[in-house]
Structure formats: C-alpha cells, structure tokens
Amino acid sequence: MALTVIGANAAQLREAAGEGSWVSPETIAQRPRNTRDLWREVYEMMPELPLENQYVNGETGERDEESTLISRLIRYHIFIKARPNRFRLDWKLTLADYLGAYERMVRDTYPGANVLTENPLEGDQAAIASLSRQQRDRLVHVLTSLFNPNYLSLVEEQANRELAEGTQETVDETSLEGEERRQRQVPRLPQSGDVELLLP
Fold it and tell me: In the chain, N or C: fewer CB atoms in 10 Å?
C-alpha cells in the first residue's frame, strides 16, 4: 500500500488501507514492544505473507516454527544492521537489502545461520522478491506502525495538512484575475537586456 496520501483524512486513510489493515494508534500503543513476538502481529495483519518456517533447528532436530521470515527480517533489521525501527525509510532499506538493491547481505551473520541446519537467507530473499510492490509497501507500513505508535497519527496529520494547503492554494488561484493568474503560472522568459539587472 502506498502511503503517499494527498488530501486524505483518517476515514479515507482507513478506506485506502483496505479491510483489516488499519490499526488505530490507541491499539498500537497498547501492544507489547517485545521484538521476539512482533512477527506474530505482522502475520495477523498480513496473513498472506509467506511463513518460511520450514527450517530445522540444529540443536533440537525439529522444525523451528518460531523462526519465520518476518522474525528473521526484524532481527536482521534491528540486530544485524542496527537500523532504527521507527522510520519507514529504514525498513525500506532493509527490504532493498533483501532485493539485492542496497547493501550486500552476509550469509554467516544472517539470523538463523548459526541455529538452523540450512541457512534461510536465499529462501528469505526469494520470498521478499515474490511479494508485490503493494505488499512490500504494506509490510513497511505495518512494521513502522508497530514500532512507532505515533506513526499513524503523524500520517494523518500530514494528510490533513496537505489537504489544508491544497485548499488554500485553490482559493488563492481562483481569487486572481485572468491575466495575473496566467502570469503567476508561467514564469517570464528572459528578455534582451536582463543581464544588466545582474550588474552592481
């Protein structure tokens, strides 16, 4: 979901987010901040995401169902890359790592590399690459909103501010007379002798 919203209020943001994807700031503020369990909330909000939890734990010899794509992504973001978890851009950079578009991911330091019998890096990269752009945008939105309780209210404030600015510009444009409006929209072309205006 793209969050470049111009002139939207909270109701429109909820509608644009789609069924079940809008989470109120109050709900998020009440959620636990334990990073070990946040992956569960991501899957609750986005059940279409691949789990990628088929890997076997080397110590127990059993399938490690707690080691999911999102749990590893969160650990990679926070503990391996030490990126802030409150900002969209940082989550986008992490997804860019998975897509091979930003920083190279190191197999030996990837979460689960030391515990699982098979390194999940390639599978996780393929899983992220299989997501549509809208799914990746929505994932960034969900992760940011979980780690930053103020995020949704900030998005709403920005949308309302842009709506107010857009309304103000429209009012200003309509109040101008015809010739004045045309002059305001089209910059004046350079005329001969304009260079003399630059002289001291």
Answer: C
